[in-house]
Design brief:
Blueprint lengths: L10 H27 L5 H9 L2 H32 E2 L3 H7 L8 H16 L1 H4 L2 H25 L3 H9 L4 H12 L1 H17 L2 H5 L5 H12 L2 H25 L17 E2 L2 H35 L4 E2 L2 E2 H30 L4 H9 L8 H18 L12 H24 L4 H9 L4 H12 L1 H17 L2 H6 L7 H10 L7 H23 L7
Helix pairs in contact: 1-15, 1-16, 1-17, 1-18, 3-7, 3-10, 5-7, 5-14, 7-10, 8-9, 10-13, 12-13, 13-17, 14-24, 15-18, 15-21, 17-18, 18-21, 19-20, 21-24, 23-24
């Protein structure tokens, strides 16, 4: 009866498709349940939200996102052009140090500058949308900087030479040639910045900015109304989808600006005076974005430790570090393992498989509060089925929290591995198969080792994101899991800046190590993924 089975349907291929379908269904489920709720919106809830603060939240969210994206693009692209297209003393060190502010969460820089500026302009004057935007720009511009620097460095020498032969000066080459050619890469970085602003709750709360993400948090904690929080989360989902659509539109038609045989753009040697200006600008940015926050945190930490106040009701620094390491480590391991498995299953399987793979990354386009609400709805549905042993529930468990974190950051691991696998020469894979290596052996012996720097870069980015992640952990953490970010949140909510310094400094130090690993991976050939 099996004589006429289709020989083209191989067991390995069938397993790969099962892996693809299962992973996509699992990772995309929290967003899917929220999307389904749009089919039956609660008119009473929406009417109440519209009568209260929804209009002002929409306005402040739009203004804040626009301001931070504009500032990050202007600062990140300018610094990237300075480093990529010019040669001056200290350029290499400055080039990598400009990525370091990525390790400082916006809410940490926020309370540092809030305290520093309160003595100058007063507490009322410093809590404004524009200062909030400035703090977020200082924390998020490295996203644009990384993408833009890679794009500028990859531009061809012939294109720049042609522009200069037509009379374009250095500024003209930047504005009329380099910047338009790097538009897709800059758009990718800007999209990441916009997503980070949409999901931020710590910084906006410090500066009394009422955004949609903050509205989800206030509704969840203030009223306990899961329905209203879900409805508001759908509005936030709509905003995120608009950003994704805009990003794809801006990146449409992207092409590499340099042929395989064309030399890269030569760097222009700056004069001593120009080098001094370049150093002054770069060091000025580093002082504001990195130096002042670090100095303030070190001073406060020393003061707090001397006074014996480096503890909370949950315990000391060791307890919070252990919780953070276990939580972030568990989520990172699950993310990297499942992301690599999906990337290997999708590799070279056609457009449908790649389209399904992209669906699995939708969580990264969703703000943290949205993912948290969707995860609760999805996990509660599983709990109601009674599939787990008596007394076990996913909602309010560590497993449920790890699941939500994986949904949110799965794209980082998947896209990092996928981009590296695409660089593996097909001839290497064909040679392995000719020699009798199966699909699994080929993946273990050739594909994953070839993608090691992409895996390393993805793991480093995951570490930065997971250690400083706040909204999902704050909404879903079970009793006994007190991370460094929640310690900072609790302390800053009561304006206890000094008590927030120790956990903030540990987070920054961890982020610095991860950023260092990321830079090593990028130097060895890993790509910045989006």
């Amino acid at each position: 009866m099996f004589a006429h089975a289709d020989p083209r349907v191989r067991p390995g291929s069938l397993i790969a498709w099962i892996v693809i379908a299962g992973t996509v269904a699992l990772v995309a489920s929290p967003v899917a349940v929220l999307a389904w709720s749009l089919a039956d919106p609660s008119t009473e809830v929406w009417a109440e939200l519209w009568r209260t603060r929804l209009p002002s939240m929409i306005v402040e969210t739009v203004v804040l996102v626009a301001a931070v994206v504009a500032g990050s693009v202007a600062l990140g692209a300018s610094l990237a052009w300075l480093v990529a297209a010019h040669d001056f003393a200290g350029r290499r060190a400055i080039g990598w140090l400009l990525v370091a502010p990525l390790a400082i969460p916006g809410y940490v820089g926020g309370f540092v500058w809030l305290d520093a500026l309160s003595d100058v302009v007063g507490a009322r004057g410093v809590r404004s949308l524009w200062l909030c935007a400035l703090v977020l720009v200082l924390s998020l511009y490295p996203y644009v900087y990384l993408f833009a620097r890679a794009a500028f460095a990859d531009q061809g020498a012939d294109t720049v030479a042609a522009a200069r032969s037509l009379g374009a000066g250095p500024l003209g080459v930047f504005l009329r040639v380099a910047l338009p050619a790097a538009r897709p890469a800059i758009a990718a970085g800007a999209a990441l910045v916009a997503m980070e602003v949409l999901t931020d709750i710590g910084t906006v709360r410090l500066f009394n900015v009422s955004t949609l993400a903050d509205g989800v948090m206030r509704t969840w904690f203030g009223t306990g109304d899961a329905g209203a929080a879900s409805e508001l989360a759908t509005a936030l989902t709509g905003a995120a989808l608009l950003l994704v659509a805009a990003d794809r539109l801006l990146r449409r038609g992207a092409r590499r600006s340099r042929g395989a045989s064309e030399a890269t753009m030569p760097r222009r040697r700056l004069s001593p005076a120009e080098s001094a200006v370049a150093l002054a600008v770069s060091l000025g940015v580093l002082t504001v974005a990195l130096g002042v926050p670090l100095a303030r945190l070190v001073g406060w930490s020393a003061e707090t430790i001397r006074a014996g106040r480096a503890v909370t009701v949950s315990g000391g620094i060791a307890h919070h570090v252990a919780s953070t390491v276990v939580l972030a480590g568990s989520a990172a391991v699950v993310c990297m393992a499942s992301g690599a498995l999906l990337a290997l299953a999708v590799a070279r399987r056609g457009r449908i498989a790649h389209a399904l793979g992209r669906v699995s990354t939708v969580g990264y386009a969703m703000p943290g509060p949205v993912v948290a609400v969707g995860a609760v709805v999805a996990l509660a549905a599983v709990d109601r089925r009674g599939w787990l042993p008596d007394g076990y529930f996913l909602v309010g468990s560590a497993a449920g929290l790890v699941f939500a974190l994986v949904v949110r950051f799965f794209a980082v691991s998947y896209q990092g591995v996928e981009a590296s696998l695409e660089k593996v020469a097909p001839t290497m894979l064909e040679s392995a198969r000719v020699l009798g290596a199966g699909r699994v052996r080929t993946a273990v012996a050739i594909e994953l080792p070839s993608a090691r720097y992409g895996v390393l870069a993805a793991a480093a980015l995951l570490s930065v994101d997971l250690v400083k992640e706040l909204p999902i952990t704050l909404l879903l953490r079970p009793f006994g899991i007190d991370t460094l970010s929640t310690w900072v949140w609790q302390a800053t909510s009561e304006s206890l800046w000094a008590q927030a310094a120790v956990p903030s400094l540990v987070m920054v130090a961890t982020g610095m190590v991860a950023v260092g690993v990321l830079l090593v991976a990028l130097e060895r050939g890993a790509e910045v993924v989006s």
